[in-house]
Amino acid sequence: MEVSAKNDPLLVRACRHEVLERPPVWFMRQAGRYMPEYRALRQKYSFLESCKNVDIATEISLQPYHAFGMDAVIMFCDILIPPEAMGMKLDFGDKGPCFESAIRTRADVEALSIPDPMDDMGFVMNLLSNLRRELANDPDTALIGFAGCPWTLASYMIEGGVSKNFAHLRRMMYDDPDLLHLLLDKLTQTVTAYLNAQIEAGAQVVQLFDTWGGILDRAGYQEFIQPYHRKIMKGLNRSQTPVILYVNGSAHLLELMAEVQPDVISVDWLTTLEEARQRVGNEMVLQGNLDPIALLTRPDVLEPMVRDMITQGGHQNYIFNVGHGLIPSTPVENVRLAVDTVKSWNRQLATVGN
Ligand code: CP3
Q1: Do 184 and 151 touch, CB atoms closer than 8 A?
Q2: Threshold 0.70, pTM exceeds
Q3: Separation CA 224–CA 220 (nearest Å)
Q4: CA dihedral in degrees (301, 304, 307, 309; nearest 10)?
Q5: Where are the domains of the chain?
Q6: At the N or C end, where does the chain have fewer CB atoms within 10 A?
Q7: CB of 249 closer than 6 A to ligand 1?
Q8: Which CATH class is domain 10-351?
Q9: Residue 354 has what pLDDT?
């Protein structure tokens, strides 16, 4: 990354190791069902319609920013849009995402196309440029783009939807690893081009989500996940744009995540920030890692947890976030309390100093 300009968003400055007055704050899944504004819109539009209608997706992306003033807006979309663009029919029902038919054979993998980001997912790039226009008067707030990682996308494509034990995916890994590699390779090409198009369209930071990366041991991770993380990192246009890598269930994987050299590692709540720092070194920026369920507790329990996290994370090399996405029953007052606590951190230090 090149040296940053003074007027870059706080989040970008944190990714560049700048010493800050306070850490930036945003939340994975900060837009969604815990917000009444979101639920109201979803009465009128299905989830996929909301993602694909640029005006609706713009409004939803901005809802948490307007309500709570996070330091970043993450585009409202889903990690399963690229598999749909590769030729799979996607539906979001009551039980979460579902593909009409799963990928099980070589013919299935070969039939998948490598989409052109603009031709096949242009609404995502339109959403990002629209959001950059909306944020033009607020250069402190960053716009985040994202993609799912090949392993996690493959899990949904092979299982056909949400899964408990990933039996089809893991069976393919044992029965026909070459076929799985073929699929992961196609996904890597797709994700790399997609993220570069997002950067071109105005994403100032991009986050990679490997939600199911933690189900493999270290050897499995080194064979089926890490090479593709590495290829994506090498293929991205990173000169201006930091990359955050999130793997859920990553306690045994942090060193391997650091090896592919993302700008930021997003830590889940099973590893303390202190331990993560020791294991990946001070040069790596950390993001995380409040247990999202802590946001369901009483304010007098939550607030000290947030403060403790900022004390651990510090004001350099740290981005305040949750360890996994917010859940629908999260009380909005607690989200507000967490954001306010982080944003008033510097003022508190000044008060202590007086
Ligand atoms: O963070 C944000 O605010 C941006 C929006 C966002 C969504 N999905 C919206 C969404 C992001 C970054 C995602 C990523 C995503 N999608 C992941 C990786 C992150 C993670 O949480 O682990 C995964 C695994 C998916 C796939 C997915 N999408 C599932 C399993 C589900 C069903 C579970 C659920 O929460 O309903 C979705 C649906 C989904 N994606 C919703 C939202 C707001 C809920 C849709 C609705 O009913 O309104």
Answers
A1: yes
A2: yes
A3: 6
A4: -70
A5: 10-351
A6: C
A7: no
A8: alpha beta
A9: 41
